[in-house]
Fold:
Amino acid sequence: MPKPNTKSSKAVDLTLDEVRVKTRRGWRKLKSEERTELVRMMSVRVTEQPFDVMRLAPKGSFLARMLRHFDDTDISYSMPLMSTVMFAASWLTQNGASLAVPGVGTIRPTLWNIGLAESGSSKTLASEEVAAILSDGDEPSVSFLAPPQSAPQWIIDLAEQNGSFWFQDEVGKLFQSIFTQSNMVQLKPWLLHAYSHQPISNRLKSEEAKLRIDKPAFTFHGLTVLETWSSEIDMSSMLDGFCQRMNYYVAEPRTDTDMYDHFLYFAGGTHDTRRAELRQIWQALCAQENAGGEYSLDDEVVPYLESWWRSLRETWGRSDLPRSFIRRIGFATLRYLPVLQFLLGKSRRKIDVETAELATRFADYHFRSALTLIQRYDASATSKVQRIAGVSKRLADDGKPVTKRNVTRKLSRAQRADFEGDEIAAILDALSQVEPAALLFDGTDGRKANAEAIRQRHDATLTRLNGNERKRNERRVREVLSRWRAEAPDPLHQADHDNKVVPIPLSRTGT
Structure:
């Protein structure tokens, strides 16, 4: 199996190469099985930590600079990050970009993402700010599709503006209307076909000719309130193929600040300066050689993605996330590849493992967010698992066997009443399949590695590698800016902004 060529795996290798085990004859390197167990422990420790959305914005990159613009707010970094990604995906779609995947065919960068955040978290404002930064003068940098008022009108609009960016606030209410309202229900089969660019058509009573779109293609970015999603979209609808076409991301609140630290957003001249700098980088990215062309893969990318996909069997494959979600999020990774290659300033080069590894981080974010949504539909069942997991950990920490009997004794009478029959045993059996072994090394000499020290050394190695990441991406930004300024490019894009263009309102109000 090909060895993943990522900074994380490189850091693990460098860390474990430094580890020595003391024996009677001196010090030796780790054995193969010892390295395997340590990597397992380290990976489990990582997955227990909250997802750090900053991992999706490589240091020194345009994405990282965009997030820095939001430092002086309490807006979750997920909102400007995903808004930037979606604008890039839309620009690429409208300018004809595609990805050639051997044996698969042509992939369009038509991402369909839905963001969920708490009420009052400035979701819309973040999108408005990104739209203003990435604008082409007074015009938006991409063409927008009007939010649908009826299914027949929607297909007419799409026929006139195929490739447009569909931005939808309060997307939960829209989906509810698609499921229940007679003038909207036709949208569901059309969207199912449009996801894979299959033809869609409609014939109005007053028209003889049928309206047909042979290859529908558009990007979709929906926003909604996290707390109301499960009430607007029931569990059966969530597990329906329609909702599973979407990549979900949950925008967690910032922990470094809160709303009371910021009365006004983006006040002061420094923010205008930063907007101008970001707009120039965006224009330079759009002027890259092959920005709107056909992207191709380096020879190492497909083997890397196949290795990553197999690794999911022991991680997300053992979670409560339905396989259909895993499959579609995994496929969406291909749609992310040209978008991230473009944003990293590498459009003229083949997509490499660096970009592929970043795409898998986005997939991991979508996996976690989808699982969060699924678990919210059955909070009681989730709390049961978490309760047993907590008791099991305390028993293990005390050096006691993690058995059904010992776990049951740690529960109160009221807590035990919540479990039926062999439910505790079933949960313990499930947990045992994903938890690491208590002892990494069980040799006759009783030697054990200090996993915490090794993890810290691994983190230090990653820090050194991240230093190179910043320099590499800063150099790329300088290069695309230099070429753009030297070539004095034409206007930002070639899209024809006619009366159907529907820009996001740029007022600074609303959440």
Q: What stands out?
A: The first helix runs from residue 7 to 18.
